[in-house]
Design brief:
heterodimer; A: 475 residues; alpha+beta; 15 helices; B: 313 residues; mainly alpha; 75% helix; globular
Chain lengths: 475, 313
C-alpha cells in the first residue's frame, strides 16, 4: 500500500540537511564511492548465503531458502531517544508480566472492571491449564520483542507486544557482524553501543529463571520444531551462540518427573527450555493431541515446578489484539504510572460508537481481526477498492466484536542504498527485552525492518521486507 | 551430546564420503570406457552395480549408455546415492547438527552444496565431465580439510570419523565384491588384456592406481591387488585401515564416556579376524565369502553404533 503523505525521515530533513544522530555517518557517506558500496552490498549477500542465514518459505520445497535482503545504511538512534524508548519498553514489559500473573491467579483487573471479563474468558489465547500455576521466578515473558513505529521527532508507538516467541534477534546480531566486517573504519569513528552480548545475556537470564529445585548450573536447551521451520536458522544460531543443545520434541521425554534429553550417554535433565514451539503444539497430552513437535506430559512437569518453559504457556493472552487496546490502562493498573510509550489509537468495533466511526471512515483505517496474525483477514482502507470496502463493511456489521480498527500510520522512513543513491523507505523497530528475577535487560537497538518497495508500509520479510543494522549511539 | 546430533554427524559424513566415492566410480568408469574397453555398456553396468543402484537404474532405463549412467549417478535425485542426493542429505544433516560444527566446516558443506547445485543443474556433457568431477573432489577435500583443521578432537570428531570409516569400508568392499572374479587366480585371465583393464578399473575406483604401482614395484597380480585393498595399512581406503579408524574412534568414545558397549566387542572381533588373516588364507577360504561376510559385519557394526549411542529414540 502506498500513501502520498509527507513522512518523517529519520536521516534527511525534507531533503535539506541531516538529523543530528546521522551527522557523522553522513560525513563518512558523502566521501564514499557508490560503486564501492555496491560491491560491498553484493559481498554482504554472498556472505549471508555462504553462512546460510536464510529463512524457509512455507509451502515450498525444502531447497527453497531465501535471504532476507540486508540494506547497508544503518538506522541510527540517539542515546537520548533510546533512553526514553527503553524506559517505555521496560515499563510495558513489567506491566505485561504483572497482568499475566494476575490473569492466571486472582484476576483483580477483571474484578476492577478495567478489562472486560468476556475478553479473557472467550479468548483462545487464554490457557485455563495455567490457572494457579506460578512459573519459576515469577517470570512469564522471558523474551519480549515489542514492535515500535515512529511517526515524528518524539512520536513513538507500540504496534504489537509480541509476548509469545518473538523472532528476528539473529538478524540483529548478524547484521552488526556484517557491518563490522564491511566497514570496520566506521565503528572506530562513530561510537555505537554493542549488541553482541545478547546470547550471553540470554543464557544468564534464562538460567536465572531455573526452577527452585535445580542444583548447580542449570541446563538450558532450545526446543525447535525442526529444520523445516521458517526460523530454524535462528534457533540453531542461538543454541550455537549460547552453547546449549538444540532439541526437538522427539529428543525429549519425561524421566523421573523431569524433562530429559536423549544423549549419547543416556538421558540428561533439562532445567530451562527456551521453546520456539507454539502453546498448541507443546504437549499433545494437554493441548493438540496430534502434535508431533512437543513433549507428552511436559505440562505436568511444568505444573510440578520441575522445568522452566520460556516464554511461559499462555502468554499469548497479553499480545492479543483485543487486549492491546487496553494496554495503557493495564500498565497504569499495575505500575501506578502513565504509559510512557503510546498505543496506536484503536477502535474496538464491539462498541457501537466505535463501530459507527469505523464504518464512516473505513477508507482511512486499517482493520484487523482480533485473533488474526500475519496480515490475514486484514483491511487496509487507503489501498482498498470501493467493492472491497463494501464487502468488508458487511463483515464488520455481521460480527463487529471480531475486529479492531486503527488509523493508517504515517511510518517514519530511513534511506536505503540504491544504485541511484539514497531512497527513503518505511521502517519499524523490534527491540528485544530479557526478563529474569534479577531484572530486565534490553539490548540497545534491536531489529529494524524496512519495506524495500517505494511507498510500501509492509515490512514483513515474507512480503519483500528487508533489514538494517540498528545503531544506538554512545553518549 | 544429543543422540540425534551424533546420528546427524555420522550420517553427514557418510553422505559426504558417498558423494566422493560415487564421483570416483564415475571417473574410473568414464576413463576405462573411453580408453580401454571394447564393451563400454558392461563397464557402466558394473559401475552401477558397484554403486549399489542398479535396480533403481534398471527401473528407469533400458540400456547402459554413458550419458544415462552418468546422469543417474551424478544428478538424479531419484537415486538416493547420486552425488546430488548425497550432498543434499549431507547438508540437511549438517543443518541439523550445525551447533556441533565449526563455522569453517559448516561453510565448507554449505558452499559445496551451493556449488554442486549450480554444477549439476543441467545434464553434464562428456566435455564438461572432468571439470565437474574435479569440482566434486575439491569440495569434498575442502570439507575434510576443515574437519581436520578446525574441529576439536572430541566425541563430535569421533562420530564424524565413524561415519567416514563405515561408508568407505563398505565402498571398497563392494568394489572388490563386484570385481572379485577378476581377482581370482584363474588361468584363463592371467596376462590377458582383459584382466589388466579390470585391475586398472579397480585401482582407479579407489584412487590408488598410482600409489599401488609405487608400493608394489609394478608387480601387478590379482593377489597383490587384493592384498593391497584388504590388508595394506598404509592405504587409507583399505578395509584394514577403515577398521583401524573405527577401532580407534570407538576406543576414544569408550574412554570419554567411560562405558564399553556391544559395538566395542564387535569391532574387536573384526580386528582380530583381520589380524589373523593373510591374503593366502583369504584366497584359500574363498575371496567372495570373505568379502560378503565383511560387508555384513561392517553393516552390523554401523547399526550397533546407532543403537549404542541412541541416534534415534
Amino acid at each position: 500500500m502506498s500513501t502520498d503523505r509527507q513522512h518523517f525521515d529519520e536521516m534527511l530533513l525534507g531533503g535539506e540537511g541531516v538529523r543530528a544522530p546521522y551527522a557523522e555517518y553522513q560525513e563518512w557517506f558523502s566521501h564514499e564511492d557508490v560503486s564501492r558500496l555496491s560491491k560491498k552490498s553484493k559481498e554482504a549477500e554472498a556472505f549471508f548465503r555462504r553462512t546460510g542465514i536464510t529463512f524457509n518459505v512455507y509451502g515450498q520445497a525444502a531447497a527453497q531458502e531465501r535471504l532476507i535482503p540486508f540494506d547497508l545504511i544503518p538506522r541510527i538512534i540517539a542515546n537520548r531517544e533510546w533512553t526514553k524508548l527503553s524506559k517505555g519498553i521496560e515499563q510495558r514489559v513489567r506491566g505485561v508480566n504483572a497482568f499475566l500473573y494476575d490473569i492466571y491467579h486472582r484476576q483483580e483487573i477483571l474484578r476492577a472492571g478495567v478489562v472486560p471479563i468476556d475478553l479473557i474468558a472467550k479468548n483462545a489465547a487464554f490457557l485455563p491449564q495455567m490457572m494457579g500455576v506460578t512459573p519459576p521466578g515469577n517470570v512469564y515473558t522471558h523474551i519480549v520483542g515489542t514492535d515500535i513505529v515512529r511517526t515524528g521527532e518524539d512520536d513513538f508507538f507500540v504496534l504489537e507486544d509480541n509476548a509469545r516467541t518473538p523472532s528476528g534477534v539473529s538478524y540483529m546480531l548478524e547484521n552488526r557482524e556484517t557491518m563490522l566486517q564491511m566497514f570496520p573504519e566506521l565503528f572506530s569513528q562513530i561510537k555505537v553501543q554493542p549488541v553482541s552480548d545478547y546470547p550471553k545475556n540470554l543464557r544468564r537470564s534464562l538460567a536465572a529463571c531455573a526452577p527452585a529445585g535445580c542444583n548447580g548450573k542449570p541446563t538450558v536447551a532450545i526446543l525447535t520444531p525442526g529444520i523445516h521451520n521458517s526460523a530454524y536458522f535462528e534457533h540453531s544460531f542461538l543454541a550455537d551462540q549460547m552453547g546449549v543443545e538444540l532439541v526437538e520434541g522427539h529428543d525429549l521425554r519425561v524421566v523421573d518427573g523431569h524433562i530429559a534429553m536423549r544423549t549419547t550417554e543416556g538421558y540428561k535433565t533439562i532445567d530451562v527450555l527456551y521453546r520456539r514451539v507454539d502453546d498448541d503444539y507443546l504437549d499433545p497430552l494437554n493441548f493438540r493431541p496430534d502434535s508431533m513437535l512437543g513433549v507428552p506430559g511436559i505440562m505436568d512437569v511444568y505444573r510440578a515446578g520441575n522445568i522452566t518453559i520460556a516464554n511461559a504457556p499462555g502468554t499469548g493472552i497479553a499480545d492479543d489484539k483485543a487486549i492491546y487496546s487496553y494496554m495503557p490502562d493495564i500498565i497504569e493498573f499495575y505500575t501506578g504510572e502513565k504509559a510512557i510509550l503510546k498505543n496506536v489509537q484503536t477502535f474496538r468495533c464491539s462498541e457501537p460508537d466505535a463501530l459507527k466511526y469505523v464504518l464512516d471512515n473505513l477508507a482511512d483505517l486499517v482493520v484487523k481481526e482480533v485473533h488474526g496474525s500475519g496480515g490475514y483477514g486484514m483491511l487496509v482502507g487507503p489501498a482498498a477498492s470501493k467493492k472491497e470496502l463494501a464487502a468488508f463493511a458487511a463483515k464488520l456489521r455481521k460480527s463487529p466484536a471480531n475486529y479492531i480498527a486503527q488509523p493508517t500510520l504515517s511510518l517514519s522512513t530511513v534511506p536505503i542504498f540504491t544504485k541511484k543513491g539514497l531512497a527513503p523507505r518505511h521502517v519499524d523497530l523490534r527491540p528485544f527485552a530479557l526478563v529474569s528475577p534479577d531484572g530486565m535487560n534490553i539490548t540497545p537497538g534491536g531489529l529494524t525492518r524496512v519495506a524495500l518497495k517505494a511507498g510500501s508500509l509492509v515490512v514483513n520479510s515474507s512480503q519483500g521486507g528487508g533489514t538494517k543494522d540498528t545503531w544506538v549511539l554512545e553518549d | 551430546m544429543l543422540g540425534k546430533t551424533a546420528g546427524g554427524l555420522y550420517w553427514m559424513f557418510r553422505f559426504l564420503e558417498r558423494s566422493e566415492n560415487t564421483a570416483r566410480l564415475v571417473e574410473a568408469g568414464f576413463r576405462i570406457a573411453l580408453t580401454r574397453s571394447s564393451d563400454p555398456e558392461s563397464e557402466w553396468k558394473s559401475v552401477l552395480t558397484t554403486a549399489g543402484v542398479r535396480m533403481n537404474y534398471d527401473q528407469k532405463y533400458d540400456g547402459y549408455t554413458a550419458l544415462d549412467a552418468i546422469d543417474f549417478l551424478l544428478r538424479d535425485t531419484d537415486n538416493p546415492s547420486s552425488v546430488m542426493s548425497s550432498i543434499n542429505n549431507a547438508r540437511t544433516n549438517a543443518r541439523m547438527v550445525r551447533t556441533a560444527l565449526t563455522t569453517e566446516v559448516w561453510e565448507a558443506v554449505n558452499e559445496s552444496w551451493m556449488a554442486m547445485k549450480a554444477a549439476l543443474k543441467t545434464p553434464v556433457t562428456q566435455a564438461k565431465l572432468p571439470e565437474v568431477l574435479g569440482e566434486i573432489r575439491r569440495y569434498t577435500a575442502l570439507v575434510r580439510g576443515a574437519l581436520h583443521g578446525t574441529m576439536l578432537r572430541n566425541d563430535i570428531f569421533d562420530f564424524s570419523q565413524l561415519g567416514i570409516a563405515i561408508e568407505r569400508a563398505d565402498n571398497t568392499a563392494r568394489i572388490i565384491d563386484v570385481k572379485y572374479y577378476t581377482l581370482l587366480p584363474s588361468a584363463s585371465f592371467v596376462g590377458s588384456a582383459l584382466d589388466n583393464v579390470q585391475w586398472e578399473t579397480i585401482l582407479r575406483s579407489v584412487s590408488a592406481y598410482r600409489s599401488f604401482r609405487w608400493l608394489n614395484n609394478d608387480d601387478i597380480s590379482p593377489m597383490s591387488i587384493a592384498d593391497f585393498l584388504i590388508f595394506d595399512s598404509r592405504f587409507p581406503r583399505s578395509l584394514s585401515f577403515c577398521s583401524r579408524i573405527l577401532d580407534e574412534n570407538l576406543g576414544y568414545l569408550a574412554k570419554d564416556y567411560r562405558t564399553r558397549l556391544p559395538c566395542h566387542d564387535m569391532i574387536d572381533a573384526q580386528r582380530d579376524r583381520l589380524r589373523a588373516s593373510t591374503i593366502e588364507t583369504v584366497f584359500d577360504e574363498g575371496l567372495h565369502e570373505f568379502i560378503t561376510s565383511f560387508i555384513r559385519e561392517n553393516n552390523a557394526i554401523g547399526l550397533q553404533i546407532e543403537q549404542d549411542y541412541s541416534f534415534v529414540g
